[in-house]
Amino acid sequence: MSDTQFRHGKKRFYDNSKFPRGFAKSGDFTLAEEEILMLYGDTMAGLESGELSPENSEEKHFVKVIENPGKAKTKLERVWLKYTQLARGRKRFHTLNGRNKPDASEDYSDDAVLEED
After folding, report:
1. pLDDT score of 105 more than 80
2. 3, 50, 59, 78: least surrounded by Cβ within 10 Å?
3. What b/e readout covers 57-86, taking b as 16+ CB neighbours within 10 angstroms?
4. Do 18 and 28 touch, CB atoms closer than 8 A?
5. Which pTM does this prediction carry?
6. CA–CA distance, 54 with 101 (Å, rounded to integer)
7. Spans of all domains in the chain
């Protein structure tokens, strides 16, 4: 990631409330994405909250991407959008049984199989 003008954060970025075991161990991020979040996450969070002001063209574009996610071009921007969606969005929960009950009119008895013979 040395080909970027984006500033490193003053400290490593962690989100212990949503990802207590780390970003990569959550199963949602790759090791490379985890490294991006840890190195640049502090700066990205500061830019998003308004605590930091953008200093170069990449950071200015990042601020625009926060307002309009469809403009994301770089890996940094896409990883931050993925993080914000997972950390702040609704967590999907899949159950093994559904809410819908089978129709009472359907006959699942052995009689139905015998009638076909």
Report:
1. no
2. 3
3. ebbebbeebbeeeeebebebbebbebbeeb
4. no
5. 0.68
6. 55
7. 19-91
